[in-house]
């Protein structure tokens, strides 16, 4: 598929992965010849194989921050996409905690040498990969975590990364077709990251074409992500999906371009 989103895993932490409640591995975003791998956490290689994703086709690897559930398999993914450094290629994009913090030793020098280019992601900065523009977004989270706005010729996707609710931050999510929210906690949970109540408040303001919740903690899994997504949709009025491990989504089904074409078609078909 030319345009596709694949959820390699939906686990919100390593505890969820270790208990085999959900897989890790991150998210794949494809647009034409560009394949972006976001947050390659634990089990990325196996999850990719099970989802029929070829990591050799990765154009860029994006890491929001240096927590292991977001970057545990970064070394293996970079080796896999470059034939173990025989074909140096691609862009590695990481935040300050991954690339600059001397107390963090996730990345090996060998893995760094596999990437053709390494870019430090700072909020507000933008880069272009062929026809795809990636903007780095603020989060309210320790370890200088970042989110990503991926603007393609066909759709605009935003990945919040790990963040708490903050009115200033959600302004960045406006004008998105697809909003992927990391929601580890269900309604009523008072925690340091997003819960379902926060998701409702964000969606009422942002109003994307569709929202997808992912990155589930054990409390969210116990509450049932599908139930939480349905209730978020009911309260916000925005179509909301609960991501599943290995789930493939056609982003064009939720693009403004397709919606406008449908409106135009129906207008033409309407009898005078």
Q: What's the quick description here?
A:
The chain has 272 residues and is of the alpha/beta class.
Describe this structure in words.
It contains 11 helices and 14 strands. The mean pLDDT is 91. With 272 residues, the chain is of the alpha/beta class. It is globular, with a radius of gyration of 18 Å. Helix 8 (196-206) runs parallel beside helix 10 (225-236). Helices cover 30% and strands 23% of the residues.
Features:
272 residues; alpha/beta; 11 helices; 14 strands; globular
Overall mean pLDDT score? 91
Low-pLDDT ranges: none
Number of strands: 14
Oligomer: single chain
Can you tell me the overall shape?
globular
Helix and strand arrangement:
Layout: E1 3-7, H1 14-18, E2 27-31, E3 34-38, H2 44-50, E4 60-63, H3 68-71, H4 74-81, E5 91-94, H5 96-99, H6 109-114, E6 117-120, E7 126-129, E8 132-137, E9 147-151, E10 156-159, H7 167-170, E11 178-182, H8 196-206, E12 210-214, H9 218-223, H10 225-236, E13 240-242, E14 247-249, H11 256-269
Parallel strand pairs: 3-4, 4-5, 5-6, 10-11, 11-12, 12-13
Antiparallel strand pairs: 1-2, 1-14, 2-3, 7-8, 8-9, 9-10
């Amino acid at each position: 598929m030319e345009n596709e989103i694949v959820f390699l895993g939906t686990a919100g932490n390593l505890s969820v992965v270790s208990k085999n409640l959900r897989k890790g591995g991150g998210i794949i975003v494809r647009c034409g010849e560009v394949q972006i791998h976001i947050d390659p956490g634990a089990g990325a290689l196996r999850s990719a194989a099970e989802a029929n994703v070829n990591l050799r086709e990765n154009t860029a690897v994006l890491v929001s921050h240096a927590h292991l559930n977001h970057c545990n398999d970064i070394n293996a993914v970079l080796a896999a996409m470059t034939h173990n450094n025989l074909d140096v290629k691609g862009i590695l994009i990481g935040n300050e905690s991954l690339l600059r913090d001397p107390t963090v030793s996730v990345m090996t020098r060998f893995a760094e040498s596999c990437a053709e280019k390494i870019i430090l992601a700072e909020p507000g900065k933008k880069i272009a990969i062929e026809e795809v523009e990636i903007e780095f977004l603020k989060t309210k989270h320790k370890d200088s975590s970042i989110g990503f706005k991926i603007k393609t010729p066909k759709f605009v996707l935003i990945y919040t990364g790990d963040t708490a609710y903050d009115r200033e931050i959600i302004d960045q999510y406006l004008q998105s077709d697809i909003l992927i929210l990391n929601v580890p906690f269900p309604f009523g949970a008072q925690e340091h990251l997003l819960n379902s109540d926060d998701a409702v408040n964000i969606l009422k303001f942002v109003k994307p074409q569709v929202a997808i919740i992912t990155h589930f903690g054990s409390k969210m899994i116990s509450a049932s992500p599908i139930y939480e997504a349905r209730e978020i949709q009911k309260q916000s009025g925005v179509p909301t999906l609960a991501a599943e491990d290995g789930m493939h989504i056609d982003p064009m089904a939720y693009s403004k371009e397709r919606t406008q074409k449908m409106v135009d078609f129906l207008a033409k078909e309407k009898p005078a």
